[in-house]
């Protein structure tokens, strides 16, 4: 494998990061049944959970684009080759 | 409850949607005779889907009309703890990242058509293959049934009973079959673009209307709920948190290995297209289930005190009020309800196509008549699909009570196929015997738990308990089974990407 080849499952930091984000999304760490102050109409716990849900979206989207690179160069080179022939 | 726009206006819009779908199907299949003669041509659009078609077919397949009609009432009943619907739809992308990159490469090299192709190639075991086919067809069948029931309810509701439930289902099943037969996966993906766009716009406009009804201030809505029903705003208890974790596992693993989801990995024209589609999909949960969640919460303020049955009508109740704002909102609501029907169909067509492909390629092509031409295999799948729909329609006349319960049921069994992908792609020791017994034990365990009324134990879903058992058997069994180095070398070759 060359240095440019990237397969997400091979990078343990990706999954450690994911675990932390998921742990922040699920509201297990707040005092149960508490009524909290509101932020933008969301109770504090729900606001924090939503914020981390959005971070999860951004994180996964970034991973797809930047940590996944297996046959892209080969495929794109082949496509360009076909285009040139056509 | 009668919708304000039920009647001729609803009928006109539904006919319009049906005509557009048929037209797209016709255009997709026009002049492509070879389409019907090749399994990957018909079922995977020639493995050549570009970014727009691939993204929208992923989107429209994953988000059904049920996402709106079923999830808004759940948010209404559970309150803010239904925020979980955003991460559990997002986590599916994380699960894809665990196996899709490698599976895509191998599927191109070996020309896979169905998920079973990977399983039979990797494990070379009739038992594992047949059990996986059974579980996946079961899951797909249940899922399709749910969509058929939903089509009937949506059409009957939208036309105020002018088109009765049964006729609504039959009419739209015929439309769906017609365009699917004309253009296969290509028609399904192209109609998904239309269906996905109207769903996205519909949800945004619907939320806009709901906001208008409550005076545009969400903070007031929450304050009111905190006074009248504090439990829906307060920090949820332990069991709910455990249930969130469990739901993330169940939906994540289950939805990512849905046969039609796996086939979308195979259909991508390139790795670049696939990863860009997934990158966009990662942002869709807040824009879809997130907005539907807000609609449900606003519903608590607009229609307080509905019981479970009453809350199932929530989307219709809100739509009636939005439609009465003015004429523009009226027509937007008519279009929106048409979009819900279209969104249900966009999910049903993908499921049916996948179901047919497994009949064609797996049952007929692997066991009944392996020597048949691909054209004949495609034909078998088409006819088998119609027979399956006929059986499901017969069941659909007696639909179950609420939508959410059957949504969970289908994952319980399907998710048991997951280890064959998640472990099978990377771990050469994993052998057929333990995979078979793990899958079977997991399926029996989760099926029994659900059927005996224990859908969840301490907040953990039966399907997840079955999956944990399944994984333990796979891992422990593979360590205990002696596998020859020759066998392991073969497995390694199959898992390799040969970059």
Automatic annotation (TrEMBL), chain A:
Keywords: Membrane, Transmembrane, Transmembrane helix
Transmembrane segments: 12-30, 42-65
UniProt name for this protein: Solute:sodium symporter small subunit
Organism encoding this protein: Melghirimyces thermohalophilus
TrEMBL record, chain B:
Protein's name according to its UniProt entry: Solute:Na+ symporter, SSS family
PANTHER family for this protein: SODIUM/PROLINE SYMPORTER-RELATED, SODIUM_PROLINE SYMPORTER
Top-level taxon in the UniProt lineage: Bacteria
Subcellular location: Cell membrane
Principal location: membrane
Bilayer-spanning residue ranges: 12-29, 41-62, 82-106, 127-145, 165-182, 194-214, 242-261, 282-303, 328-359, 380-397, 403-427, 434-454, 460-480
Cellular component, GO annotation: plasma membrane
Family annotation (InterPro entries): Na/Glc_symporter_sf, Na/solute_symporter, Sodium:Solute_Symporter
Gene3D superfamilies listed in its UniProt record: Sodium/glucose cotransporter
Catalytic reaction equation(s): L-proline(in) + Na(+)(in) = L-proline(out) + Na(+)(out)
GO-annotated molecular function: symporter activity
Membrane topology, as annotated: Multi-pass membrane protein
The species this protein was found in: Melghirimyces thermohalophilus
GO BP: any one term: sodium ion transport
Family stated for the protein in its record: Belongs to the sodium:solute symporter (SSF) (TC 2.A.21) family.
Keywords: Cell membrane, Ion transport, Membrane, Sodium, Sodium transport, Symport, Transmembrane, Transmembrane helix, Transport
